[in-house]
Amino acid sequence: MGRLIAISNRTAADPSARAGGLAVAVWESLTSTGGMWFGWSGNIVKGEPGPPEHITDEGVDFVVTDFTEAEHDGFYLQYANRVIWPVFHYRVDLAHFGDTDFDAYEKVNKRIADMVVPHLEKGDSVWVHDYHFLLMGDYLRKGGWDGPIGFFLHIPFPSPEVFRALPEHEQIARAMCAFDVLGFQSENDRSNFVQFLVRSCDGVDEGDGWISVFGRRIRANAYPIGIEAESFAKLATGQRAKTATSRIGKFLGGRKLVLGVDRMDYSKGLPQRFEAVGKMFDNFPSTRGRVSFTQIAPPSRSKVEEYQDLRVQLDELAGRINGDYGDLDWIPLRYLARSYDRKELAGLYRIASVCLVTPLRDGMNLVAKEFVMAQDPDDPGVLILSQFAGAAEQLSDTLIVNPHDRYHVAETIYKALEMPLEERQERWEKLRRTVVEQDISWWRQKFLDDLDVDTC
Ligand code: ADQ
């Protein structure tokens, strides 16, 4: 059985990063096959970085490197997060196409590839993660590696027209075809990628995921990422969850909770969501004083200007909505710019009558799946899901909305709040089954089977 070699920007070398689903899935694969995990240490250094640090934990060898200030800025903050992230989320208007950032992106991809190649042995399979490393396959090949390389994109792949807005799209597409198996979150993303190859690169779609392009045969498929479904359900009835439920219960005082949980990111559609909630209080006066909306949104990438602007916009909107609708004994909209422990989140999901997952674009969105698993089967809440989240392909039995249509979102929240118990249970049972069947282990296995990695 060959080893699995993982490459991602952040690794689970830091035990606190191990709680997330992805870290768990990759970790499980590595401990079962034996393997290595390469990435960034999380440190930024002045001057040249020292030699990579080796850490061994439970049979997994981590090799992590520091970034220089120039790498962290050009590769991470600029090209990855101010070019690829906005363009792949259909926000070309927010992209900053600098002169030198792609150079930094190329150099970091090459430097990490050069760090990996000497460790590779015959029989190994490489699994590269996410938009930071779109060029990694090409550099591994140039470094002499001809064994299998898989790639999984956690964010959307945009439509060909939008992808073409990226000045370096040709180089990126060609480099991506050095991977053997390319995994996308949804059929929609997969089809965008394949359409680009067929229309712009003379690729031939041979069916069943196979594509001939640039003299190679590669596979592109949808592998929707899942969560650790059963264990998340257990968290929702644990002590820590109950404490969180009782704390928010005191605040609610019998009112119904409408909940949002997101990283503070412009892709998540938070201003549009706040406005829709305002519209609901406006158009459905019976909800006033009876319903409270709480949005949990820890700031992320706060060194990037667009994220700072979003924070200001949300602060203003929250103030305005509370000013317009609030009363002496009622706060219509609460917005908590901090993160909570997963166990506490599970409790909040469980007590919520409605969860709003309304991104303008999202690769998958795991909050939607976590909310489903946290519900009480005797009295499940209702998930309202954006048609632009990858999760909408799997969770089509829930209430699906266009997040730009504030009136319709407002109406849907009202409909969810009024939904009879029987309908809520029927819908929830279908969602639960999907989330349990297509959990994180299912996702990992499906991908690694296609990459032909033998795991036990
Ligand atoms: P993200 O954009 O980070 O992930 P998401 O899928 O929703 O988005 O995952 C967020 C995770 O962070 C969830 O597990 C959630 O519980 C947690 N989280 C969110 N807000 C939190 C808060 N306030 N406090 C504590 N925890 C919080 C990227 C892509 C997604 C894709 C995932 C996985 O953008 O589309 O689903 O990767 O592939």
From TrEMBL:
One Pfam family per UniProt: Glyco_transf_20
Q: Which CDD domains match?
A: GT20_TPS (cd03788)
Q: Read off the SUPFAM superfamilies from this record.
A: UDP-Glycosyltransferase/glycogen phosphorylase
Regarding protein family, the annotation reads: Belongs to the glycosyltransferase 20 family.
**Where would you find the membrane-spanning parts of this chain?**
none
Under the heading PANTHER family, the entry gives: BCDNA.GH08860, TREHALOSE-6-PHOSPHATE SYNTHASE
Q: Which GO terms describe its molecular function?
A: alpha,alpha-trehalose-phosphate synthase (UDP-forming) activity
Q: What is this protein called?
A: Trehalose-6-phosphate synthase
Coiled-coil segments on the chain, per record: none
